[in-house]
Amino acid sequence: MRWKPLCMLQGFACIAVFMFLLVFWLSSEAKSSQNLYKQLRQRRNFELLTVNERLFVEKNQNFVVPKQQVIPANSFVNEKVQTKVAVVPVQNVEEVPKASNQREALLILTSMRTGSSFTGQFFNQHPDVFYIFEPLFPFHDSCKIAVEKKIEVLEGLINCNFTALKFSVDESLYNAQQLLKVEQSASNLDHLKRRIKNLQTCKQSTICFRQSTKALCGKDFCPHAPSCSKCKTVPTMTQIERKCQEAKLVVIKSVRTCHVDWLSKTYSRTGIPVKILHLVRDPRATGLSRLTMHKGLGNATHEMLGNCQIDAKNMETRQAVAIKNDHWLTKRYMLARYEDILSNVAQFLDDVTEFLTRDSSVLKSASFNLTHPEVTKWFKTNSRTSGASIYSTSRNISKQASKWRKTIQPSLAFSIQKACEHMMSLFGYKPLKRPADLLDWSISLLSPLSKTV
């Protein structure tokens, strides 16, 4: 009998040990999760985490990220300033609108200084269009860096989902701030400081270049501001996405998309048929414009060689599939030369309208036409004189197409046309035979484009 109490005592001891081990294990798991969260917060602010890291933290901490508040620009300069993240119950978070199939998408595939900002305004002024200006700005200019992330951002925007874009701004800002701490070159320091300032503006405005999207500058967002640049109201991500989804057409203007093949899977992933407007310009004019923008610094010929190779590859891709009726690019590609747009804007607007409404019940039912009164009003106001800024969207179209011929150095013109010989042949740009041809206005440097192009 004396062994019975002993056994009972041993049983209680076993239970106690088991309970102790269980509590210890649970506390270790909690501590491990907390340590991981702490490490992630130490490595970068919570809002700077990658998508996978955010999902992990949300899953293990049982909360979601609250809607971001506008943060003063100097918050990003001081590393000690930490953004506080409140715990928000899932049911209280404003839901992101679901995707709609009542919308089309157009990507303006182009490069810097090709007249793309001016051309993009024809779309931006239309009330049925949600225009997105340079959403890949947070990324490196190189076509070989962060390709998958760029595609992810484009796919999100086509579907009016700005989450990936927001994360790219956060990450690029963080990376630039870290580089600023170790960079020694004065020129690179100046560049980084400008980049950080621009990315801070992107973050404060929720998206980059918010003032370039007319749909976000209406009376519902800026009731008292004389212009979008003066507007102090910052739209939330959900407001931007809803405004995007109200549009019949989403237009993305990007000089960092590079290759048409990037969009080969967007239709299967988004369900929205993307069309492409491939905008090109005489590389000699583009090279001179870039050299002016860079204040005479850099190698314009080398830079244009890379761009001409990309344009040529995109054209060759299109030509290779022109006879394949089942290819994703068939009937979704349109070429436009900047010089042709300036010479006959009305024809360009008609051609683009036909291109966009073809096989589109959404735009046909909305009677979409790019010659909308708002578009023509903007054009009449902004086509008579050129703006003072190199980034201005105002152009004197009667002089713009041939302006470069008066100011380019003959040596630069010949150097660029030698580097871009193949591209110029594909797109109908004639080479100069002698320096005097630059100022001989009886000589046209454009060949008519084939109807099959």
Verbal overview:
It comes from Phallusia mammillata. Residues 105-427 form the Sulfotransferase domain. This protein is an alpha/beta fold and 453 residues long. The protein has two domains: 3-81, no CATH class; 104-162 and 206-439, 3-Layer(aba) Sandwich (Rossmann fold), CATH 3.40.50. Helix content is 48%, strand content 6%. It is built from 18 helices and five strands. It has a five-stranded parallel beta sheet with strand order 2-3-1-4-5, sandwiched between helices. The radius of gyration is 28 Å and the shape is globular. Residues 31-100 have low confidence and may be disordered.
- What is the straight-line distance between the termini? 102 Å
Estimate nothing, just give the exact number of structural domains. 2
Oligomer: single chain
CATH fold topology of the largest domain: Rossmann fold
Identify the overall geometry. globular
β-strand amount: 5-15%
Using only C-alpha atoms, the radius of gyration works out to 28 Å
Strand segment tally: 5
Number of discrete helical segments: 18
**Helix-strand string:** HHEHEHHHHEHEHHEHHHHHHHH
What is the helical fraction, as a range of percent?
40-55%
Strand order of the largest sheet: 2-3-1-4-5
Task: Give a short account of the largest sheet.
Answer: 5 strands, parallel
Q: Structural class of the helix and strand makeup?
A: alpha/beta
What number is the mean pLDDT?
Answer: 79
Present the secondary structure layout:
Elements: H1 3-43, H2 51-61, E1 104-109, H3 116-124, E2 129-133, H4 147-158, H5 163-182, H6 186-204, H7 237-246, E3 249-254, H8 266-270, E4 274-280, H9 283-293, H10 300-321, E5 333-337, H11 338-343, H12 345-357, H13 361-365, H14 373-382, H15 397-400, H16 404-407, H17 410-419, H18 421-427
Parallel strand pairs: 1-3, 1-4, 2-3, 4-5
Helix pairs in contact: 1-2, 3-14, 4-5, 5-6, 9-10, 9-17, 10-17, 10-18
